[in-house]
Amino acid sequence: MKIAIVTGASSGMGRELVLQISQKEKFDEIWVIARRREVLETLQAEVTCKIRPIPLDLGKEESYKEYENYLEQEKPNVTLLANCAGFGKFGRYDQIPLEACLGMIDLNCKALVAITQLTLPYMQRGARILQLDSLSAFQPVPYINVYGASKAFVLSYSRALNRELKTAGIRVMSVNPGWVKTDFFDRATATSSDAVTYYNIMYEAKDVIRTAIHDLYHTRKDVSIHGLPVKLQVLGVKLLPHKLIMNIWMKQQKHN
Questions:
Q1: Backbone conformation region of residue 17, classed left if phi is above 0, alpha if psi is from -120 to 50, else beta
Q2: With 211 labelled, which of 24, 69, 175, 185 sits at a CA distance of 20 to 30 A?
Q3: Alpha-carbon distance 221 to 202, whole Å?
Q4: Torsion sign across C-alpha atoms 243, 245, 249, 252
Q5: Dihedral through CA 156, CA 162, CA 164, CA 168, nearest 10?
Q6: 67/33 Cα distance (integer angstroms)
Q7: What dihedral do alpha carbons 234, 226, 183, 16 form, nearest 10°?
Q8: Tens of pLDDT along 177-231?
Q9: Is 74 exposed, middle or buried, given 0-12, 13-18 or 19+ CB atoms closer than 10 A?
């Protein structure tokens, strides 16, 4: 069977990806992974291909073994893997509980690597891997320090893995958007309402995903960036000292 697997599919960018990818490519099934089965099941009414809900909490290591057993049992031909699960927390270092900091690392980094590594044996030449990343991957970001660092890991890991898999004919691409209108902010701002208050441009999830799918299927990019302002910002952080970039960020957010 020709299978797509999408983590973090219950909401936000992951859910939008399921909706759009089902129109882009013909799959026998799309396996959707998140914690809440009932929310995953609602996707079936919005797409034409078969949806298979797989309720897993990828923030817990025991879910990796459950996923591995599932793959061994089904032996799918995975032509697309999209790692969209993740979360962030805004706030000063002492406003974000240690448990939340470690949770970001577990989900944003460890789970992404685990799902990628476990799925690769079921992928053949021509398959694609999409890793949902962030603009914050390109620079140190005060008041989003652990989240930004976790996304820097995703960027480095994805680009290096893409090079390793070149001879196998499997593409890996990270998607690095700026601010996107999703429920990400509900969880991110729960630890602090004033750590991050300036959002220069807020994009729609459907537009970011549309660009990502185009880049994944029609270019050789290993990084997808939506929006000219975001592209210019990425260029800026490559050319300017990070100390200066952080000073600008702190001024925008009205921190001394």
A1: alpha
A2: 185
A3: 23
A4: positive
A5: 160
A6: 10
A7: -150
A8: 999 999 999 999 999 999 999 999 999 999 999 999 999 999 999 999 999 999 9
A9: middle
Cβ atoms of 175 and 132 closer than 8 Å: yes
For 99, the token pair is 């448990």
Residue 150, amino acid: S
Q: In the chain, which ranges are continuous DSSP H helix?
A: 12-24, 37-41, 62-74, 98-105, 112-119, 145-164, 184-188, 205-218, 228-239, 242-252
Alpha-carbon distance of 31 to 6, in angstroms, equals: 6
Q: How far apart are CA 129 and CA 49, in angstroms?
A: 20
CATH number of 2-252: 3.40.50.720
Going 8 to 13 to 15 to 18, the CA torsion angle's sign is negative
pLDDT digit string (tens) for 23-57? 999 999 999 999 999 999 999 999 999 999 999 99
d(CA 187, CA 61): 22
Q: Which residues touch 168 (CB under 8 Å, ≥6 apart)? A: 125
Token pair 């652990």 in the structure block, residue: 146
66: DSSP letter? H
